[in-house]
Amino acid sequence: MNVLIVLAHPEPKSFNASLKDLAVSVLTEQGHNVQVSDLYAMKWKAVADAEDFLDIQNGERLSYARESKHAFVTHTQSLNIEAEQRKLLWADAIIFQLPLWWFTMPAILKGWFERVYAYGFAYGVGKHEGERWGDRYGEGKLMGRRAMLSVTVGGRLPQYTERGVNGSIDDLLFPIHHGILWYPGMDVLAPFIVYQADRLTKEQYETVANDYRTRLENLFTDPTIPYRSQNGGHYDDQQVLKPEFGVGQSGFSLHLQQPNEAVDNRPQAQKEYELEEITN
């Protein structure tokens, strides 16, 4: 299988970098093909702007979404954007290795998503009418791929529980899991999280490394987060959850399918290697 690792940490000798190295080693030992996008080493441009397009349609006023759509369709995107899209289409699984900074991802990774997730590639896909408002939330061009966040956190685990002062880690990661990974169709694994990552002892590091090795060995077999698919019959024509679903739930958990509910009839994910869409 093919695995892409996206690393978002500025220090090559960091704990994050060591987890990236461990992932490359374990996955390669298993016979997988691995590519790494080290965003800081690549000097990735985090800002989405007119430089992302080789052929600007309207030079007087930039509409990033419109120019993104035009560039994707006409194959006039910035070459580094196209290269990352190609990696995503190549991959069967994507691991995002990052520190939690100010309750979210580092800016360089956010900029990677903003630029690589072009109109027509990650959004604006499919028909938009009735209950089917595009191929998203479980469908889309990245459907069939697995995604996992590997996150280092400076704080202690109790601070990131439901009653912890920082809020539940599941809630904090929901915008990434559901809104960025599940949106274009990737199946999302539970995150691998290391708390107090900046003060681990050697013994604690060994425990973390062993735990991460286990997660990596089960990358293609562990169950994924059971998010509801938008077009699986759970949402109405306004994309609002129908009243018979999520009874007794609230908040983000409303969008998790429950065992006692009707099975989501989302079509079986089929990986598509449509590289010609961005290369021809």
Plain-language structure description:
This protein is an alpha/beta fold and 280 residues long. It is built from eight helices and eight strands; from the N terminus they run E-H-E-H-H-E-H-E-E-E-H-E-E-H-H-H. The strands form two sheets. Strands 1, 2, 3, 6, 7 and 8 form a six-stranded parallel beta sheet that branches. It is globular and about 55 Å long.
Keywords:
alpha/beta, 280 residues, single chain
Q: How many beta-strand segments?
A: 8
- Oligomer kind: single chain
Through-space gap between termini: 25 Å
Provide a count of the helices.
8
Would you tell me the overall average pLDDT?
92
The major β-sheet equals: 6 strands, parallel
Which regions have little confidence, pLDDT < 50, spanning 5+ residues? 263-273
Shape: globular
Q: Helix content range of the residues, please?
A: 25-40%
Give the class from helix and strand content and strand pairing: alpha/beta
What is the helix/strand order? Answer: EHEHHEHEEEHEEHHH
* C-alpha Rg (nearest Å): 19 Å
Tell me the fraction of residues in β-strands, as a range: 5-15%
SSE diagram, text form:
Layout: E1 2-7, H1 15-29, E2 33-38, H2 64-74, H3 79-90, E3 93-99, H4 107-116, E4 128-129, E5 132-133, E6 146-152, H5 169-182, E7 187-188, E8 192-194, H6 202-217, H7 230-234, H8 276-279
Parallel strand pairs: 1-2, 1-3, 3-6, 6-7, 6-8
Antiparallel strand pairs: 4-5
Could you write a compact summary of the structure shown?
By secondary structure, the protein is an alpha/beta fold.
